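Page 37, continued from 36.
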């Protein structure tokens, strides 16, 4: 339901921005595959997955008196039992029977899955945002931003992202000037 509203309102806003930039409006079908829609969707999913991850992790540690979602403050519950004690039961899940790393991953599977979904939505949000930024830059006569194609060793010597080139160039010049000044001062 939310995605339907997001797509309808988003297309209207996106087309108005395109008209303001002297670009042709897009159809609803084209908007659904645009970087703008992808960025808005991934931004929403990113915040949702981060919120769910935090909720899962924090509710394992926090207790709230009278809350239906919280464990009882008095005594132990079934979820408090050590899963390694159920190793010999036939109906125990296979990671519990195997133990070790598979049990650890199984014990944290929900939080790990939500963290992975957050990371994926974060990456997709960044990529679609860079693509949308490139579209607007080209519309204004600038250059498209490019995501790095491969990892580089830190520190990054030259940025492939145009909006980072100027600050990195200033930083490099200032560092070189400081090095020259200190070498002259020590000479």
């Amino acid at each position: 339901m939310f995605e339907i509203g997001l797509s309808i309102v988003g297309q209207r806003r996106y087309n108005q921005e395109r008209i303001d930039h002297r670009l042709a409006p897009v159809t609803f079908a084209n908007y659904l595959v645009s970087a703008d829609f992808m960025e808005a969707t991934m931004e929403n999913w990113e915040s949702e997955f981060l919120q769910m991850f935090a909720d899962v992790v924090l509710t394992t540690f926090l207790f709230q008196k009278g809350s239906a979602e919280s464990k009882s403050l008095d005594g132990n519950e079934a979820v408090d039992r050590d899963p390694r004690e159920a190793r010999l039961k036939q109906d125990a899940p296979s990671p519990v029977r195997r133990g070790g790393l598979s049990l650890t991953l199984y014990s944290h599977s929900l939080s790990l899955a939500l963290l992975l979904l957050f990371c994926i939505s974060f990456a997709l949000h960044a990529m679609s945002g860079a693509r949308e930024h490139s579209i607007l830059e080209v519309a204004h006569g600038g250059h498209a931003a490019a995501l790095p194609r491969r990892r580089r060793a830190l520190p990054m010597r030259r940025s492939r992202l145009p909006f980072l080139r100027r600050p990195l160039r200033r930083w490099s010049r200032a560092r070189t000037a400081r090095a020259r000044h200190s070498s002259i001062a020590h000479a």
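The CA atoms of residues 55 and 111 lie 9 Å apart. Flag for discussion at group meeting. The chain has two domains: 34-147, 158-187.
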